TrEMBL record:
InterPro entries: Cuticle_assoc_divergent, Kunitz_BPTI, Kunitz_BPTI_sf, Prtase_inh_Kunz-CS. Coiled coil: none annotated. Pfam families: Kunitz_BPTI. PANTHER family: BPTI_KUNITZ INHIBITOR DOMAIN-CONTAINING PROTEIN, PROTEIN CBG15282-RELATED. This is BPTI/Kunitz inhibitor domain-containing protein.
Amino acid sequence: MKNYVVMALFAVVLLDAVSAAVQLPEETDATCNQKPRPGKRCPEEKRRRMWYFNPTTEECSSFMYNGCGGNTNKFETKQMCDDICNPSTYDYEIYLKNIEKTGNTTEAFEPPPN
């Protein structure tokens, strides 16, 4: 019985350490938790499909962007949205290195040069 208690305690500590290691940076978390905003119509831009991260479903969904304004929770492609906001779909170490190189979470999805 004592071994089970020790194993359970070890599992809890290990799970806590792993979950702390995969937390998103604050800036990304703030971007990905915003509600999508379609922005406003502007003459130089056409309406187009963009992608946003839905923190409730933990998935990227599309919406129609009006072309100007809005907020930072908008991405050109679903892949870009997943790479930035959904940690289960990308290599987190590469993501962190890209943020360090670019200083910009919206460029962090790009693979590093060979």
